[in-house]
Specification:
It contains twelve helices and twelve strands. By secondary structure, it is α/β, with parallel strands linked by helices. The protein folds into two domains: 190 residues, Isopropylmalate Dehydrogenase (3-Layer(aba) Sandwich), CATH 3.40.718.10; 139 residues, Isopropylmalate Dehydrogenase (3-Layer(aba) Sandwich), CATH 3.40.718. Helix 6 crosses helix 7 and helix 8 packs parallel to helix 9. It is globular. The chain starts with a strand and ends with a helix. The relative contact order is 0.17. The structure holds nicotinamide-adenine-dinucleotide.
Length: 352
């Protein structure tokens, strides 16, 4: 197949880990006889330095016209001034909006020889393999009204958690579809005992579940989910939840695997190019040293092969090669190893 992939390496370790993923994608291209065209654009701090904005219209247009977008990370101390008019994260928000991606998928897996890197006891990690599907464009981060007013010397701040049935239906449906290709279990997380938006969430989820009779569905309150993620994480398969709950739970779940450097993500909409990126930031403390863990970005490119390019065999090949590399103990410092980015990447290439 032919695919047009836009690369947004960004700042800090972003360019280092994206370069590693491109090496793996090029190996897949050769091995499986595909043609991938890579085009590079700026996002984040580097774009602010060159163009004064975190994402130019032409970079966004290139992404919209692509089959898929692979992003590294944005940000760093140079652009951290909270009073600055333009901040690197603005580019990310503009990109997600411009691509219409409403679902963020984050898998979390525990690898047997990395249990020492996790804060949980090894026996708790056996069988942990889940995907959290987080709603990305609705909920309290975007709901209106939002803002502050001061009346009689009392300042009040308001945020609004709002969802439409359609916004809920499309993400829950995506979670059920995903569960169909996995362990066939969906846990829908809400706060239906208190929030009206959660009661609508639960109602729509029950409607969607009727279309998937072979998939087990359970509702769980977000406070219970936060507890069960650390007390019994292996019970989860696909977790679907609204934006803010997902924001918090995905970071909690990420800790299980041992390092942020390991974890990929995919942001998907209905049609259009998907956005693939590791969950970590630009890691300015290690940028330029060649020691960043490339696995989160390499696994993000496997997600790209699976979800945007529909190349399941190729995606599985990348994931299997990463597992072999982890099992061989070729690890970067964040996982207690001594290997650098290049050595880990070359080990993955040799396992392909
Ligand atoms: P971070 O994820 O960049 O780093 C946290 C810690 O994890 C650091 O010690 C870092 O060295 C380590 N780490 C992260 N990725 C690693 C990897 N691949 N290999 C080895 N170690 C890794 O988070 P932070 O320090 O809070 O933020 C740094 C900058 O990144 C900030 O400017 C922040 O705004 C930005 N950020 C960007 C994104 C994004 O682009 N999506 C996400 C989070 C943070």
């Amino acid at each position: 197949m032919q695919a047009n992939i836009v690369l947004l390496p960004g700042d800090g370790i972003g360019p280092e880990v994206v370069a590693a993923a491109v090496r793996v994608l090029k190996a897949i291209e050769t091995k499986f006889g595909h043609t991938f065209t890579f085009t590079e654009e700026l996002i984040g701090g580097c774009s602010i330095d060159k163009h004064g904005v975190a994402l130019t219209d032409s970079a966004l247009k290139a992404c919209q016209a692509a089959d898929a977008v692979l992003l590294g990370a944005v940000g760093g101390p140079k652009w951290d001034d909270p009073t600055a008019k333009e901040r690197p994260e603005k580019g990310l928000l503009a990109l997600r909006k411009g691509l219409g991606v409403f679902a963020n998928l984050r898998p979390v897996k525990a690898y047997p020889n990395l249990t020492d890197a996790s804060p949980l006891r090894p026996e708790k990690l056996t069988g942990v393999d889940m995907v959290v599907v987080r709603e990305l464009t609705g909920g309290v981060y975007f709901g209106e009204p939002k803002g502050r007013d001061t009346v009689n010397g009392v300042t009040r701040a308001v945020d609004t958690m709002a969802y439409t049935d359609e916004e809920i239906r499309r993400i829950v449906d995506m979670a059920f579809k995903l569960a169909g290709g996995r362990k066939k279990k969906v846990t829908s997380v809400d706060k239906a005992n208190v929030l009206e938006s959660s009661r609508l969430w639960r109602q729509v989820t029950a409607e969607v579940a009727k279309n998937y009779p072979d998939i087990k569905m359970e509702n769980m309150l977000v406070d219970t989910a936060a507890m069960r993620l650390v007390s019994n994480p292996a019970e989860f398969d696909v977790v679907v939840t609204e934006n803010m709950f997902g924001d918090i739970l995905t970071d909690e779940a990420a800790v299980l695997s041992g390092s942020m450097g390991l974890l990929p993500s995919a942001s998907l909409g209905s049609g259009g190019p998907g956005l693939y990126e590791p969950i970590h930031g630009s890691a300015p403390d290690i940028a330029g040293k060649g020691i960043a863990n490339p696995i989160g970005t390499i696994l993000s490119s496997a997600f790209m092969l699976r979800y945007s390019l529909k190349l399941e065999k190729e995606a599985a090949a990348v994931e299997a090669a990463v597992e072999k590399t982890i099992a061989s103990g070729t690890l970067t410092a964040d996982l207690g190893g001594k290997a650098n980015t290049k050595e880990v990447t070359e080990s993955i290439l040799s396992n392909l």
